[in-house]
Design goal:
Blueprint lengths: L4 H11 L3 E5 L3 H14 L3 E6 H6 L3 H14 L6 E6 L3 H10 L3 E4 L6 H18 L2 E6 L4 E3 L2 E3 L6 H8 L5 E4 L17 H11 L4 E3 L7 H9 L2 E6 L1 H16 L11 H23 L6
Parallel strand pairs: 1-2, 1-10, 2-3, 4-5, 5-8, 8-9, 9-10
Antiparallel strand pairs: 6-7
Helix pairs in contact: 2-4, 2-11, 4-5, 5-6, 7-8, 10-11
């Protein structure tokens, strides 16, 4: 059974740990993440971007797949199915499809328009019993073909959005989607502290969790971050393990080309990556 992200993030915020949001784009990845969460007794958020949703033939297909896997794999830890960086239209589609949580990325709109659209979605989510995340301050890097330089959010704008009744807030603090460049200046903890002071107990979200040093992760959690998104690191570990399998010629041995064998090393690599992240975030045993 799917749950909303709201309750698990409130517990994480109070307990000074973070829940990992791991993006999914196929059955193997979803299975690996769910089994790891169950093994470690960790709550988990399955993130779906609009691009990944289309790749998996639509949001209703994703919802049906996740619900079936939770039942068949006997997953008992809390699981949220969450739209990642959703457009206004994408949010409406995911609400209709039965997601338990959505993120509306209104950071590309002027603040007044961001406020208006967020307010509308908050009202719908309250009626449906869903949780909603909003964003202020563009996150850097690339997300579904949209490239941004990243910026630090305005704490006063963060408060305006938080006061609309959202359940969690993603705020730009110099974080980036994808690989961090060598000249990356690090997270702006001054900005994060200012945001936390403005929004109080609101659980904060850190996008671009791949490659951020552990000491920065721990400090971010101490300042109210309760959800950390990870995508690129799973992609990299899957690709590396698959490449190693093929370069070793194992796909040429017996029926090594069988997709079940070909995908297995990558799936195991994702399990290991997810395990390492859950241990770093402190969510192990918190289910």
């Amino acid at each position: 059974m799917l749950v909303t992200a709201k309750e698990m993030l409130e517990k994480a915020r109070d307990g000074k740990y973070a829940v990992g949001a791991f993006n999914i784009n196929n059955l193997e990845w979803t299975k690996s993440i769910l089994l790891t969460a169950e093994e470690l007794r960790s709550p988990v958020i399955l993130g779906v971007s609009e691009g990944a949703g289309k790749y998996m033939t639509g949001f209703k297909t994703v919802t049906a797949m996740v619900k079936a896997m939770i039942e068949e794999l006997k997953i008992t830890v809390p699981v949220a199915l969450h739209l990642d960086h959703g457009t206004y239209e994408g949010c409406l589609k995911c609400i209709e499809a039965g997601f338990s949580s959505i993120m509306f990325d209104g950071s590309h709109y002027p603040i007044e328009e961001n406020v208006e659209k967020t307010k509308e979605l908050v009202a719908i989510c309250r009626e449906k019993g869903m949780s909603i995340e909003a964003e202020v301050g563009s996150i850097g890097g690339e997300e579904d073909g949209v490239v941004g330089m990243g910026e630090c959010a305005d704490p006063d704008e963060c408060k305006r959005i938080a006061d609309l009744g959202i359940d969690m807030l993603a705020a730009g603090i110099g974080n980036i989607h994808g690989k961090y460049p060598a000249n990356w200046q690090g997270l702006s903890f001054e900005t994060l502290a200012a945001i936390q002071e403005k929004v109080g107990k609101m659980p904060l979200v850190l996008h671009g969790g791949t490659g951020i040093p552990e000491d920065m992760i721990k400090k971010a959690i101490s300042l109210g971050v309760a959800k950390i998104n990870v995508n690129t690191e799973c992609q990299l570990s899957f690709a590396a393990a698959t490449r190693e399998y093929i370069e070793a010629g194992k796909d040429q041995q017996g029926k090594g080309y069988d997709p079940r064998k070909l995908l297995a090393p990558g799936a195991e690599a994702i399990k290991q990556t997810v395990k390492e992240k859950m241990e770093m975030f402190g969510s192990v045993g918190k289910a």
